[in-house]
Amino acid sequence: MAVPRHHMAKGKxxxxxxxxxxxxxxxxxxxxxxxxxxxxxxxKFCGYYKGREVVNALAKKLKKKExxxxxxxx
Length: 74
Description:
The protein is α+β, with helices and mostly antiparallel strands. Helix content is 34%, strand content 11%. The chain has a domain at 26-73. The termini are far apart.
């Protein structure tokens, strides 16, 4: 079992842990729909990245809805 060699003062311990605090997420506005999204990532609401469509978000939503209806019908 590991045992500390010397007593560590609370001040030193707290100074060491001062960098462990959680920081708020930095968000950027989507250039197409204006919603807050992660920077350098495709917008999950409209599917656009850097002003062009990368993922067809509408088709994805329709497919998901259709799948739910199909599984509920069984």
